[in-house]
Each structure stands twice: as structure tokens, then as C-alpha cells.
Request: fold
Amino acid sequence: MRPPYPRRLRTGAAGAALIVAAAAAATLPSTPAVAEPPPDYCAPHGCHDIVPPGQNGSATLVEILGHQAFGTRPRHSSSQLDMYDDLVHHYDGLTEEGLDDFFLDAGFGVDPDDVGREYQPREDVTITRDRGHGIPHVEGTTREGTMYGAGYAAAEDRLFLMDVLRRVGRGELTSFAGGAAGNRALEQDLWRSAPYTEEDKQAQIDRVAASGDRGAQALADVDAYLEGVNAYIEEADGDRTFPGEYVLTGHKDAITNAGEIEPFTPTDVVGIAAMVGGIFGGGGGGEVRAAVVRANFLDRYGAEEGAELYAAWRTENDPEAVVSVDGEFPYAQTPDEPVGEAVPDPGSVEPYGIVHDEHGSAADEAAAEPLAQSVEEPAAPEDPAQPPTLDDLSAADQEELDQMVEDGDLSEAEGLFNDGVLPDDFLDPRGMSNALLVSGEHTESGNPVAVMGPQTGYFSPQLLMLQELQGPGISARGASFAGVSFYVQMGRGVDYAWSATSAGQDLTDTFAVDLCENDGSTPSTDSRAYVDSSGDCVAFEELSVTNEWSPTVADQTPAGGYTLTSLRSEFGLVESFATVDGTPVAFTSLRSTYRHEVDSIIGFQRFNDPGEITSAASFQDAAHDIGYAFNWHYVDDEDIAFVNSGANPVRVEGTNPTMPIDAYAGVGWSGWDPVTNDADLHPKEDHPRAVNPDYIVNWNNKPAQGYTSGWSTGSVHRGDLLDSRVSALVEDGHAFTTASLTQVMMAAGTADLRAQEVLPRLLEVIGAQEVDDPDLAATVAELRAWHEAGSLRREPRRDAGYYEHADAIRVMDAWWPLLVRAQFEPGLGEDLYTELTRAVQVDESPSGAIGGGEAGSVNQAQPHRGSAFQYGWWSYVDKDLRTVLGEDVQGPLGGEAYCGDGDPDACRTVLLDSLSEAAAVPAGQVYPGDAHCSAGDQVCADAVIHQAVGGIGMWPIAWQNRPTYQMVYQFSGGR
Reply:
């Protein structure tokens, strides 16, 4: 029995009951020497990765109190944060040798001189953790042992986070973590999109297990993994080394150890997989919103012109959009003659509310009382590479901590989760990016280079965890989501590496389902029965979960509760009620991966199998076993490759997947089975793919022409930040190295898309004449200088506290929403403009929001999430200005320009007037401040802040638009 990490606290009789949670441990068993590591084909300086803030995501109660009171940190909890942050300040002049300053060595095994701990949770598996960062290297003599070790290590590093994620998957977060408004919003979002009964989840497991040898092996792997997780839970409970958050949320008693940490089950894995897949691998939906927007176009412009303008603004397949691979891959396109569209009557849509029977704080919306002492932002330690631990406390501080323990004084940890344990927009689909791959033809060594990774937000501890898994049929190192880490999901094999970006293609359709009454009476939108596929009137299936909460140390929200009830039909989950041509209907959402959350396990299993992945072609084949919508990127010593995955349903001819579908019109999904949600799927040849182009870049942009994209995917996309740089270097004959491609990624990751791609057009229109007003002329000159300097949002040096070209950045942040409104609202009209802003947000600047603030407002929320410039009106502004300038525009927004009604002089006036208004907005209003930043602090407003999913917080880091888990790979040989 031993703690996950060595933790010692000066003992005294008074504090012994709690201190045992940090100190009690048995002597480690002797272990045999680790076998020789498997072959490793990394090129010199070729294999690197990093996942901030650190590997250790577990803290005992005493460690949490020490952190909150004295700023100590568990070992390895933040060891990667400063390395990660340093790159943005020092990527200029980066060398291959210098990569070690910013990344971990991702070679297989652990250098004998760097072994920190080596232990055997059971006899057929050895876990070795390096001294510097505590990464688990799991080596099993049996496959079952390898999986057991993976589960054991995962629980060591992420147990409380795993528990939070499974509770989200069950729709039971408030009952577990507290009734904070953020927790309520999060579990409600999940229960709207992926509600399942335990029987539903088990049925998915049973189906995959019965699908063949790989399915049976997958179930065995999950069972062994969970055995390891649960073994650790039992040990940690026995020696009181479990995460302290269980005490703070009321599930364990610090003195008596009463209470239970519930064992994990296979159905918990299904819930976590559904949540992760829905966030990062979903796509489609929103057809009712699209129908409302189209109706507004038709109302304003008439049927023919309105339909043409709607299609132009929808940008399904914009010819100017940046793509990752060549070729035409038609998918989910609007047909020329659509059949079975079901458009809601104007004003009839009533969203279905899943929350029922609210009481207590759920009914009166009472929140926790503000803390008397506000929680301060954690400060960076003097030496971030060696932050203080409990061992470093002074005698006086040690005595004070002992006294807290003796008194059971948990006041330092009060209110940690008053805002919620995860952000309330956690389930919002987000970019999972990015990837840059260059073929060997354009590298210095002749071997391909890849810099890539997922952009999954910033949390403490991180959702992803690093690990190496070695055993029969598995050889991989990389990152996996906590709770489903039985396989490496993105990382490397023996002589290849792979990663993903969210693709977002349309896997979800909306159906209009006729309502009925079982007694034959006239239905209304209040009816809760529908006509099924056989023509019978049946009640919607009610999927309900009841949550009750009461105040705890961590979440002081007053007691309350409610029941969440989703309505399920054969045609999917009810999202809203409405009328179509006067007939009452339910609009239901059906996702092709619903009831198939587990199926993708086969693809990940194959990725980890060295006998399975032997070439780019074999990798592309394995990716087809993943049902979620991802773009996969692959590199070995000879090839780079791209392939899109996803359970793309084959739609019956005439089906319009961008509009609600009449459930009884004979259209929809070919071969669809309403019982299993099986359908005919597009074969792998229909998915965008490529092997060995000159280069591949993707930042959640359109994978290929013909592959229908979301709103505003047009002439300007953040993928251009990568493509413009890499293509220019290729054209110039640059010989790429791992360092130079990393530099390209980082330069793009500090660039402002609006300034790089759209500002030149704005300045061209403005520059047609001299600007008379001297102050405005100076502002224009500042904007021009910023663009010419690279359009970067970057401090001149680390901790400078200000940006170079700070005032130009302030002006752009204030100008963009004002500009968009001034440019388009007069021509579109207020109603249509407003509907369009609901369909696609106007802006996504680092200090802005993708949901906060009113559309077009200067003041927007500041989520500090790093990822930026994915969604916005950049293409619309660009295309319209080019139309004004008389340039050739492929896929214009209609026949006439909007800015100044197409008159260049009038458009120039619009731009200057809105610019003048923006220039006058003070920094304190552009950056109004929040719980983390004072008003007017531009750099802080952009800063990345790790959301604490536990008792250990992190200090802010500089804004950088880059993958959370970053890989740099080059292989110099192979099998």
C-alpha cells in the first residue's frame, strides 16, 4: 500500500487522523528489472510532447489545505506548465536542440538515471515513473496486466476528475459535486444530448463485445482497466491517500473515513465516452435555427432571391475556403430539388425544457453566499520548475497546518466549487486542433515532420493524461482522456505517430415528428405522444434522472433539487415543439453515433497495435472504425497522411440535411433501423483522404471541397494562419526541421486572424483617400504598423505585462463587433441580422466570448480558454469588402455589396465612423475585468487560465492558440 506520490507532513498526535491521508504508506515491494524497451525509431530531436499543467492530478486533503493556505503544490502537478508557456516567449530562433526546453522526451521507456519510482500493482505489470514529471510507463507481461496497470495509473493521477466525468455522463453532477449553477447547466446540457439508461449503455457494450475478436478483446481490456482503477480506489481508501475533494464534497469523512468512493463500472466508460465524443467528435444539428434564418431571408427578399442569398450566407461549400486535401468529396450537400422539408411556422417554435419539479435553490435560483475572503488567483512560484511542496513548509507554517488538521478546520477550502466544478459551457462543441505535417521532400533530413495535437481546453488537472503502454498487442505513448485511458488516443507507436482535429461534419439530422393523443383527440404542441414509423400513436419515452444537493465545504449552494427528463422517440431526442403548416410536431435530433458511443473503441485499439499499423494505408483503414467526426493525421519515416472519420449516414436522394426533415416523407437515412439506430454509412472511399501531398495543415477547417461545412466557412478561416505560412515556406524551398515547423505553429498561434487576413482589405478601402482627422489617421497608422509587423498578440518579452502594438489590438477588439453591425445591419435589416448572429457568432477574440455578451456588443465575456478565431464573420467581411473594391469574388454574398450599399465612398465612411467609435472606447470598457483580471488589463484579459477541477489551482499563462496536448515528431527509420 503506497501513496501515488511521496507525501510527508510533520506528524503530531493532534493531527494524526488526517495526516495519515498524506503520509501512511507501506514499503514498496521489490520489483524485477524492467525489460529492454521496444524498438524506437525516433529521429534525433524527433519525439517530443507536452500536456500542461502536469501529470499528477491528485491531491490529498492535507495537500489541498497546504495549497490553499500556503501555496504548496503536489509534486508533478505543475511541472509542465512553465515549459509549455515558455515557448510563446522564446520560439524565435528555436533550434532542434532547444526543443527539450519546451517539450518532454517522448521516446519509449525511461532513462535509468531518470527513474523516480518503479512498482508493481500486481505481478504481471510494472509501472515506472520518471523523476522529472512522473509520467507512467506501463509495461505488462500479459495484456490483462497492461490494462490493469493503465487503470491503476489513471486512478493514481486523475481519480476525482474521472469521477466528475462519469457523473456528468450519468447526468448526476449536482448530486455528486453540488448544486452550483454551473453544475446544473452542465448536467442539463449532457442530459439533452446523450441521455441513456444503464440498460442502454450495457446494450452498447454487449453489441461491441459480440462483434468479433477485436470487440471481445476490447471488453476484456476495459474490464482489466477497471479492475486496476478499482484496486487503487480500495487501496487509497484503506490508507487514506484518496483525493481530498471527496472530503470537501461530503463523500468521505476526514476523521472517521466513513463514506464510499463508488467503484467504476463498464457503463461509466460508456458515459464518459459519450461525453468526450459529443464535445470533440460531434457534428451537424441546428436545422431548426437554419430554417428560421432561411425564412427571414425569404420574408425580406422574396422566395427566389431570398433562397439564393441564404445559400450564399450559409457557405456550405465555399470555393474560396481553405482545405486540407485536394479532390472533391461530396457529402451532406443541399440537393437541387429537396424532398420532405418540414419548416416551422413563424413564431411557433417552443424549446422543450428538460428541468422539472425544481425545489429549493433550483426553484429560487439561490446561490452560495459570496465568500468573506475572495479566492486569490494562484501566483506563479519563484521557481516554477520546482514549486514548493509540503516538505518545504517552514516550521511555523507546518505547525499552523497541523492545527487546521487537528481542529478539522477546512475554511481554506470553502467555496472551491461555488461556481461549479467544470465550466457550464464545457459541453459546447469546440475546436480540437491543430496539425501541421510536411513531407520528406521538403525537410532537411528527408524524413517527414509533424507538429500536431488536440486543443481540448485548459483544466487543472488536465482532461488528458500522458502515459506509455507496452504489452502483448499494444505499444504506444501519448495522451488519453481520463477515465477511458485503456488505449492511447493520440500519440505515437513504434515508428509512427497520429493525432486528430475535430471535423464537425454532419452526423446529426432534425426530424419533424407528428404529435398525437392516445385517445384520438386533437393533438397540440402540449401533446406528449407521437406517430411512430409504423403509424401508431405512442408516448415519448421519458429518460429521467433526479438530483438532490445540499451545501458542502466545496459548494455552499443552498439545498435543492430537480428532475431532468429527456423525451426520446424512434426519431431521436425531442429538442422543441412547433407547428408545420398548422400541424403540431416535435422536432427531434438524431445523431448517427447515438446508441453507438462504444463502437469507436475498435479504431483506437487498432491505432495502438504495432502489428496492425504498418503503413499510412493501414492507419487510414483503422480510422474508418471510429464513428466520431475527426480528421486524423499520420506520420512515419516515409509518409504523411490524412483521413476523415465519422459515421456518415447515407441519405435518401432528395434529403436536405441542412433543414428539418419530415419523418414520414420517405427521406432521411438509407437503411435506418429505428430500434438500433443503425443505418447505411458512407464507405471509407467517400471520406477525404490523402497520402504524401507536399504538406497537410488543419485547424478545424474544411477537409476537402464538397464536404459540407458549417456556417461562415469561407474565404477566411483560422486554417489560413497555418496554410499561408507553410505554403509560403514550401514555395520558397525551405527545408523544414522539427524546430522550424514548431516555430510556424507558434507564430500562427499568436496571430490575430482578423488583423492578418481582413485588416488589409479594410485599410485598402480606407486608404482610397487621405484620412483628414489627425487622431483617426494615427489610429489607421497604428493598425497598419501592427499588420506589417505580423499581426501578433504577443508581449515583447516574458512578463512584460503589455503587448507590442497594444493600442492597435485594443482598437481591433473594440472595432470588430461595431464594424460588422455597421457593415451589414442596414442592408440585412435588424431582424435578419439578429437571426444571423444567432446562427454564427460575430467574433471569437481571445478576450471575447462565443456566448457571452449581446451579439455585436463591445463588452463580451472573457473565458480565458486559449482557442480563438474559429467562429466569426471574417469571411463575410472579407467577401463584402472585396466586392466593394470590384475584385473577383468566388462565392459572393449576393449580387450587391452590403457595405455602404456597394458604394466605395459610402463604405469608407461606414468603416471610418465605426473605427472612430471604437478608438474612443477606453481599455477598461474593451476589457472590463472579471474575477481574474482588473479592468483594462489587456494581457490578462487574453490570458489562458486553467479551470480547477479540484483543489489545486494554476497560475495564468500567456495567450497562445495552440494544442493543449502538443506533439513534435520525426522518425528516421521503421520496421
